[in-house]
UniProtKB/TrEMBL annotation:
<feature type="compositionally biased region" description="Low complexity">
    <location>
        <begin position="515"/>
        <end position="545"/>
    </location>
</feature>
<feature type="compositionally biased region" description="Polar residues">
    <location>
        <begin position="478"/>
        <end position="488"/>
    </location>
</feature>
<dbReference type="InterPro" id="IPR037138">
    <property type="entry name" value="His_deacetylse_dom_sf"/>
</dbReference>
<keyword id="KW-0378">Hydrolase</keyword>
<dbReference type="Pfam" id="PF00850">
    <property type="entry name" value="Hist_deacetyl"/>
</dbReference>
<protein>
    <recommendedName>
        <fullName>histone deacetylase</fullName>
        <ecNumber>3.5.1.98</ecNumber>
    </recommendedName>
</protein>
<keyword id="KW-0805">Transcription regulation</keyword>
<keyword id="KW-0156">Chromatin regulator</keyword>
<dbReference type="InterPro" id="IPR023696">
    <property type="entry name" value="Ureohydrolase_dom_sf"/>
</dbReference>
<feature type="compositionally biased region" description="Acidic residues">
    <location>
        <begin position="401"/>
        <end position="410"/>
    </location>
</feature>
<feature type="compositionally biased region" description="Basic and acidic residues">
    <location>
        <begin position="411"/>
        <end position="426"/>
    </location>
</feature>
<dbReference type="GO" id="GO:0070210">
    <property type="term" value="C:Rpd3L-Expanded complex"/>
</dbReference>
<dbReference type="InterPro" id="IPR000286">
    <property type="entry name" value="HDACs"/>
</dbReference>
<comment type="similarity">
    <text>Belongs to the histone deacetylase family. HD Type 1 subfamily.</text>
</comment>
<dbReference type="GO" id="GO:0141221">
    <property type="term" value="F:histone deacetylase activity, hydrolytic mechanism"/>
</dbReference>
<feature type="compositionally biased region" description="Low complexity">
    <location>
        <begin position="457"/>
        <end position="469"/>
    </location>
</feature>
<feature type="domain" description="Histone deacetylase">
    <location>
        <begin position="37"/>
        <end position="329"/>
    </location>
</feature>
């Protein structure tokens, strides 16, 4: 049956160019839920490989996001639950580290197993969605993509349905700091219960979920529309198995059109679970790749800032195909059906084509049932006010990485280069202050640096020994002279060190001679230098050997 998809939905058509950001962490494919588990994070790496080999990365900003911290996760999740995930290891399962009651408390088991690197996997997924939201709120992108996100089942205090941390809720909370209203759309075959539950009592977030009825997690009935201020702001579209492209399009587009025109969201989050595709291991819909992508194209056509995340999908070769194709749709690019060679090329045999066709599965959704369902949903939407407003208030400050700078620091672990660079204070931020005791660097007529302090030691640290050693190194004529003439000593061939901390790798006392020495056309003899350095390291007066007449070249 002809679907009537627009050329734009297939990756063509002329539209206004939009700025697109693509978030990807190469480590996401390293994690494994366990042997025989249907959830495969490796599918995100396969998708990225296709995106790269098709050359799509050249047309968008590819960003490796900062991983979410435990503190960021607690913006939605319970502190005790996040702390538990942070400390959880496979060794704790079945041992003294975790009782059966604890496993039940946090809903860990076959669906949500404990695997190595679980918290890091969650931080990658959540970090990408939070970074995508921040990219939109700063006005730097119109569309942000995070295929590692979309874990919509996770609850505030427990895991559920292969999901541990709800990255979608965390991203929406970021968007709500700047936008009065946010729309969440879910085209996963499973009901997006975790996101709906989080915003079930508010009118600032509308959730619209298109899912199979009487399927995991068993929620998402038509009459579940929210409570309190959130009444009628939860839209559930329960469907029967065998849903095909034509039926899906004729239901999805009218409902979304009505919501967009009536609710007028400031931003949209679209969850693109690929388990609604035909042939999925756990799903039983019959959507083709192009039918699935038509939803992405239609939401994009409204021109509202949008975050696109992944979700379910358990036939991983089809997941990679679909998300690659939808990336091209967002970029408004046409892709050849013949797949380019890539490291996972053998996964796509025997056809090796960018296509997921529908099959001959029977559609249990009759046109009459779909029309009645659509009419009931639109009737529910008429009970909500047009574009509910929010009281104006000051926007909360942006989250910065410095907020977690001292969180769980392990001083026995080598820090990353990026973190080390972030701790370097720029020279422009240094200034004289009261604790410098009036000392400052002064440039002489020749442009050289000398110190205005009579004692060039480290008075700030209060080290008398180091101060004495540095004082002698500055070039005192004799060991007993307490007020050396630095300029006169400079003429003799030595240079006084600037009043700064020792160089990296040197001790506060032992390497003052090296820290203060500079290149000069006039140098002291080797014997004199050796004696001076030795005296500086010992922190006492220069020996008699260093007082011998200096020779210059």
């Amino acid at each position: 049956m002809t679907t009537g998809f627009s050329s734009f939905a297939l990756g063509g058509g002329a539209t206004q160019k939009q700025r697109i950001s693509y978030f990807y962490d190469e480590d996401v494919g390293n994690y494994n839920y366990g042997l025989g588990h249907p959830m495969k994070p490796h599918r995100v790496r396969m998708c990225h490989s296709l995106v790269t080999n098709y050359g799509l990365y050249k047309k968008m900003d590819v960003i490796r996001p900062k991983r979410a911290s435990a503190r960021q996760m607690t913006r939605f999740h319970n502190d005790e639950y996040v702390d538990f995930l942070y400390r959880l290891t496979p060794d704790m399962v079945g041992g003294e580290g975790m009782s059966e009651s604890t496993k039940h408390l946090f809903n860990l088991g076959d669906d949500c197993p404990v695997f190595d690197g679980l918290f890091e996997f969650c931080s990658i997924s959540a970090g990408g969605s939070i970074a995508a939201a921040n990219k939109l709120t700063r006005g730097e992108s119109d569309i942000a993509i995070n295929w590692a996100g979309g874990l919509h089942h996770a609850k505030k205090t427990e895991a559920s349905g292969f999901c541990y941390i709800n990255d979608i809720v965390l991203a929406i909370l970021e968007l709500l700091r700047y936008h009065q209203r946010v729309l969440y759309i879910d085209i996963d075959i499973h009901h997006g219960d975790g996101v709906e539950e989080a915003f079930y009592t508010t009118d600032r977030v509308m959730t619209a979920s298109f899912h199979m009825t009487e399927f995991f997690p068993g929620t998402g009935k038509l009459e579940e529309t929210g409570i309190g201020k959130g009444k009628n702001y939860a839209v559930n579209v329960p469907l029967q198995k065998g849903m095909d492209d034509w039926s899906y399009q004729n239901l999805f587009e009218p409902i979304i059109k009505h919501i967009m025109e009536w609710y007028r969201p400031g931003a949209v989050v679209l969850q693109c679970g690929a388990d609604s595709l035909a042939g999925d291991k756990l799903g039983c819909f019959n959507l083709s790749m192009k039918g699935h992508a038509n939803c992405v194209a239609y939401v994009k056509s409204f021109g509202v800032p949008m975050i696109v995340v992944g979700g379910g999908g358990y036939t991983i070769r089809n997941v990679a195909r679909a998300w690659t194709f939808e990336t091209a749709v967002l970029l408004n690019e046409q892709l050849p059906e013949q797949l380019p060679y890539n490291p996972y090329f053998e996964y796509y045999g025997p056809e090796f084509r960018l296509d997921v066709p529908a099959n001959n599965m029977k559609n249990d959704n009759t046109p009459e049932d779909l029309n009645n369902l659509k009419a009931q949903i639109i009737e529910n939407l008429r009970h909500i006010p047009c574009a509910p407003s929010v009281q104006m208030q000051e926007v909360p400050r942006d989250y910065t990485s410095s907020d977690d700078e001292d969180e769980d620091v392990d001083y026995d672990t080598r820090i990353s280069r990026r973190l080390a660079d972030s701790r370097i204070v720029p020279d422009s931020e240094l200034s004289d202050s009261e604790d410098e005791d009036g000392r400052r660097n002064i440039h002489d007529a020749n442009g050289s640096i000398r110190s205005s302090s009579p004692a060039v030691g480290s008075s700030r640290a209060g080290r008398a020994t180091a101060s004495s050693a540095l004082h002698n190194f500055a070039g005192s004529p004799s060991a007993g002279n307490s007020s050396p003439n630095i300029l006169q000593n400079r003429k003799a061939g030595s240079v006084a060190p600037s009043d700064t901390a020792p160089s990296k790798g040197s001790s506060a006392q032992g390497d003052w001679g090296q820290a203060g020495s500079t290149k000069s056309t006039k140098t002291t003899s080797n014997a004199s230098n050796a004696n001076i350095n030795a005296a500086a390291r010992r922190g006492r007066a220069v020996t008699a050997a260093s007082q011998r007449p200096q020779s210059t070249k």
